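Session log. Operator J.P. requested a structure for one protein chain; no other inputs attached. Running the standard single-chain path with token output.
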Amino acid sequence: MTHEFKLIDTTYSPNEAQELIFNMIKEKKNFFKIMELANYVKFQEDPDHISLRIEQLDESKEELKKVFKDLGDDYELEVFCPVKIVAKKKDKAAEATDSAVLSN
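Structure written below.
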């Protein structure tokens, strides 16, 4: 099953676009931090992929700061953020491994 929709499909001033995008990055980082804490509480380990993704978001934000700084008021920005959700059945072998880890 697949579902697609447009989360953002609008034109903004540079300041509006920056505020929108930076807030989305902040919320995504908060989501990852909560996941990271939950994994630590459950498994007493820090998942590297979550920390890496947070670093990538920070790097993207720094790059975007430079882009927004270079834009003046005579620009408008078209911002597009399509979302695509693809539902897939879980792998039974992976579930068994996860269950074994939880029971130890």
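Operator note: The helical segments are 14-43, 48-70, 92-103.
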